[in-house]
Amino acid sequence: MRTPTGGAGQRATAAAGKLMSIGTVLGQLRGEFPEVTISKIRFLEAEGLVEPRRTPSGYRKFSPEDVERLAQVLRMQRDHYLPLKVIREHLDAAARGEQVKLPAQSPPPGSRGPGEEGWEPLGERRTAARVGRAELLAAAEVDEAELAEWESYGLLVPGADGGYDAESVTIARLVSDLGRFGLEPRHLRIMKAAAEREAGLVEQVVAPLRRHRNPQTRAHAEATANELAELSVRLHAALVRSALGVRLH
């Protein structure tokens, strides 16, 4: 087999020479993003935000374009607090040559520190989306007695204003769906307890970031918490499937 020569072969060789290991990429990104980790880069790859090449032995190799894409993702998380799905849509649109307009750079509630304008203590941060009791009943298609029972087991907890956060709608629908299989609220308390323990672990990781003097680092805590929550949910689902597989076989 002939070795490529000339323009195309030289360009391919030059491009291969620019490929970087994940450790080198980490070193390049940390100048602007001191909180980034190898786990974070792997997570972004798993979410489809970047697709590095692989050597025959399985090692990741990143191109300069991959590094710039990672930097764009991290900037959008840091400066605009966008979820990964929205970031992927923005990047895909930009790759198609479409005009992409990002939201204004305004830190979310709770990202500022004591003494800074707009600061709110961690336990008092406002939730962007709230639903009333009647709205929750309609969205979950349940009656008042069912909702009251779920609340008695701590599966749903109204706020001081009597309203519920956006996740409560999802929780109510799932509790209702599980009920059709004979799983009652008293059975679901173990799931609630497990979720609270997982939330506690996430809080241990992000608490030092929230106490940091750098406002950007404190804001990064929210993105980190969301990322850890996603990983925790995926691990929980995999563990349940694995446990069921063992028992069914």
What structural class is derived from the secondary structure elements? mainly alpha
H/E element sequence: HHHEEHHEHHEHHH
- How would you write the strand order of the largest sheet? 1-2
What is the CATH architecture term of the largest domain? Answer: Orthogonal Bundle
Instruction: Kindly give the count of domains.
Output: 3
Measured between the Cα atoms of the first and last residue, the distance is: 50 Å
Tell me the strand percentage band.
under 5%
Radius of gyration: 23 Å
* CATH class category of the largest domain: Mainly Alpha
Low-pLDDT stretches are 1-16, 105-128
Q: Roughly what is the average pLDDT, rounded to an integer?
A: 78
Percent helix range: 55-70%
Number of helices: 10
Q: What would the principal axes of the Cα set say about the shape? A: globular
The total of beta strands comes to: 4
Reported for the largest beta sheet, the result is: 2 strands, antiparallel
Q: How is the CATH topology of the largest domain named?
A: Multidrug-efflux Transporter Regulator, Chain: A, Domain 2
